[in-house]
Amino acid sequence: MLARTAGDLYWLARYMERADYVARLLQVAGHMNAVRVDKNLTSEWESAIVAAGCEETYPAGHAGADEASVIQFLAFERSNASSIVNCIETARRNARSVRTSLTTEMWEAVNVTSQELAGFVGAPLDADRLSEFLEWVKVRVSLFHGVCANGMLRRDSFHFIRTGQFLERADNTARLLDVKYHVRLPDVSDVGGVIDYYQWLAILRVVGARRAYRVLFKGRVEPAQVAELLIARREFPRSLAFCYEQITHHLDSIGAQDPAMSTEARRQAHALFTDLRFARMDTVLQSGLHEYLTDVVDRTQTLGAEIAKGHLF
């Protein structure tokens, strides 16, 4: 496979997954803001900017991180490369350049999404319309990944798409879980209290994990168990361990057919998968969940760079 084709497939999946993540992130901020008590605390909208990796590029600085400006920046701002609008439009450009490598259903899923996006851009969005838009983004991304899984030959093109999808999802899950730790509770005594409880519940709701949590853990939502679900439980398809299980599988499949794929990338992926698979949540929480997740994000970015370097995208 040509390196350019591999790169376009890889980034097509990453941008589609990123659009889904930003939509979920805005929903997290909205849910957390609803249970916020002390208005003098760091804004949950500021937390969304940090978790999206836009802390340095957000033009107004943290002082201007209010609901309306953050939604505009993360959802519709053309100058933000990771806004939902830019992610969908960039994904379409990548899909168009590798049209012959996609199934008809995959191309239509991306193309129709880009066309329908115009109905939301520039139109006034009240709370109901915003909620509709964010749900629409999630449904369209799910459609793309669904037709990919059900209709594509298991060859290099499929493996590059899946590698991009799960690498982006791993990065996103780590950031999404970490966003809770950018919200300062009124007092240390509030950890484990009502506000803390609803913040964790909001994260479960946004990643679609409320039922999964009840099935696996039952009872009250506990931080250690939420962290375990989203980090180490391979049964849940948005957990870090599940994502890295998929990444290692697809990198191994590419490496078996394509010597150009870096063995260093495969080594890094397997090393992180092992760490996630056997992570002990009590140890992680004691040493600092924020520090642990930051390390995962850094290693995921290093892996992404190594994949690109190894295959010369």
Task: Explain what this protein looks like in three dimensions.
By secondary structure, this protein is mainly alpha-helical. It has one domain. Helices cover 70% and strands 0% of the residues. It has 14 helices and no strands. Helix 1 packs antiparallel against helix 2 and helix 12 packs antiparallel against helix 14. The longest helix is centred in the N-terminal third of the chain and has 32 residues.
Topology, pairings included?
Layout: H1 3-34, H2 44-51, H3 67-76, H4 84-97, H5 104-117, H6 127-151, H7 156-178, H8 194-206, H9 210-216, H10 223-231, H11 240-257, H12 263-277, H13 281-287, H14 289-311
Tally of DSSP helical segments: 14
Order of helices and strands: HHHHHHHHHHHHHH
SSE-based structural type: mainly alpha
Coarse morphology: globular
**Count of DSSP strands:** 0
Distance between the termini: 11 Å
What's the mean pLDDT score? 86
Domain tally = 1
Estimate what percentage of residues fall within beta strands.
under 5%
Which stretches are low in confidence, meaning pLDDT under 50 for 5 or more residues running? Answer: 184-191
What is the CA-atom radius of gyration, in angstroms? 19 Å
Main sheet, how many strands, which sense, barrel?
A: none
What is the percent of helical residues?
A: 55-70%
Summarize the structure.
This protein has helices spanning 3-34, 44-51, 67-76, 84-97, 104-117, 127-151, 156-178, 194-206, 210-216, 223-231, 240-257, 263-277, 281-287, 289-311. By secondary structure, it is mostly helical. The chain has one domain (3-311).
